[in-house]
Each structure stands twice: as C-alpha cells, then as structure tokens.
Design brief:
Layout: E1 5-9, E2 14-21, E3 24-31, H1 36-51, E4 60-66, H2 70-87, E5 91-95, H3 96-108, E6 112-118, E7 124-131, E8 137-146, H4 148-154, E9 158-165, H5 168-171, H6 173-176, E10 181-184, H7 193-205
Parallel strand pairs: 1-4, 4-5, 6-9, 9-10
Antiparallel strand pairs: 1-2, 2-3, 6-7, 7-8
Length: about 230
C-alpha cells in the first residue's frame, strides 16, 4: 500500500495541492500568480476533508523545492514547514523541473523531457530527464540556470527527439530552436503537486526524507538569501 502523502507547490504561476492516500488521489490546482497565499491552505483543507483524513494521520509532506519564482518557492516551503512541524511529519523536497517531466509522462507518455522555465534576466531554469524502467527519472543534463545561447553552445547532440515542457520554450523560442536535437512540443507549462506526490512516493519508499527543520529550497541562483529557521545553521 502506498504511503499517505500530501504535496503542495507554489514555485511558479500555478498553485497546487495533491493528496495520495489509500490508493486514491485528491487534487486542487489553479493558475493564480498573485494569490498563492490565499489559495494554498484552503486547498490543503479541501483535499484532507475529501479524503477523510487529518494532517497528523499522514506519513509525509512533500513540497516543490524549486527552482522557480523566488517568492513562490519561499511561500511554498514556509507553509509546508509550518504544517510539517505542527503534525510532526517528515518532509520530501521535489524538483519542480522533474515534476514537469513526470507531468509530461502522465499526459502524453513522454519519456525524454527537456524542461525550461523562464527564469527572467535572460535565463532559463533547465534540466533534461529520461524515464527509467522503474518509473524514476535520470538527469541527463543537470539542473541549472543558464542563458539560452550558452545552453545551445554547451548541449550535446542527440539523435532521439525530446519533448518540451515549461514556459521557457515560449519565451526563448527562437534561441532554443538552435539546440542540437529535435524537440517535440509538449503540453506541460507548470509543475503540479499531482506529479510531485508520485515522485514523493518513490522517495519515501527509499527513505529519502528530511526533518522539517532541514527542509531547504533550491534556487539555482547563488544571489538569493534564504531566511533560516531558528536552530538552523
């Protein structure tokens, strides 16, 4: 039986929550760039009520660790930590980029996914992922923040097509067309908690959890300061 895991994500324009429990999936999702703080907790309450569960009856709490909007990532991890502390739950940080690869597989069966999120400042958050036989994802190109032109210069050719995911493909369409491999247009623009909870199940099974005070964001840019919780070093 799968673990009972709640996942939430506010790292991009999309705000989403998902609960996997007793073989059922309960989800809420809304694209609302400026309303994450208003939406996320009511969404959590809704999926818990729908499942007939209380927060302290869960096994773990997963969150979108980034990369994404600095403010969005901070909102998500702050709320997730507060919930996890209150219910004494371990936490699982999930890459927003990998979640989008999982979303591409869920929607159209894509197993080679190139993810690019518009990172502003003429850069993209980038990662390439290939699905393995056990359902996990291997990083073919490690997550990074990079100008599209530099990405093109540093990318290796590949004879197999990749499926695109993310807002970066729209923002930098002309630049990314020069990549040395074929790219098929995908349908995924944003990460969702629905896909994060699947990845969190995989991590939970192998014990890849952290205590709430150890949960941390991944910004990829070194210039962003993370306000640490009391007791963190």
């Amino acid at each position: 039986m799968s673990a009972k895991i709640l996942a939430l994500d506010t790292a991009t324009e999309n705000c989403s929550v998902a609960l996997m429990a007793n073989g059922q999936l309960y989800t809420r999702s809304q694209v609302a760039p400026r309303d994450h703080t208003k939406l996320i907790l009511p969404m959590v309450d809704e999926v818990l009520k729908e499942a007939g569960l209380k927060l302290n009856e869960l096994d773990a709490l997963a969150f979108g660790r980034g990369p994404g909007s600095f403010t969005g990532v901070r909102i998500g991890i702050g709320i997730a930590q507060g919930l996890a502390f209150g219910a004494d739950l371990p936490m699982i940080g999930i890459s927003t980029l990998k979640a989008m690869a999982q979303g591409s597989y869920r929607i159209n069966g894509a197993e080679k996914v190139a993810v690019a999120i518009d990172a502003r400042m003429s850069e993209v958050y980038w990662g390439r992922f290939q699905r393995q036989n056990d359902g996990t994802w291997q990083e073919i190109h490690a997550e990074c923040v990079i100008p599209p032109q530099v990405l093109v210069e540093q990318s290796d050719s590949d004879q197999h097509p990749w499926v695109s995911a993310g807002t970066g493909w729209q923002t930098y369409d002309q630049e990314l067309q020069a990549l040395p491999f074929d790219v098929e247009k995908g349908e995924v623009l944003y990460p969702t908690a629905e896909d994060m909870v699947v990845l969190a199940q995989q991590d939970f099974l192998v014990g890849k959890t952290v205590d709430a005070e150890e949960a941390s964001p991944v910004y990829l840019r070194d210039t962003v300061a993370w306000k640490k919780l009391p007791g963190r070093e």
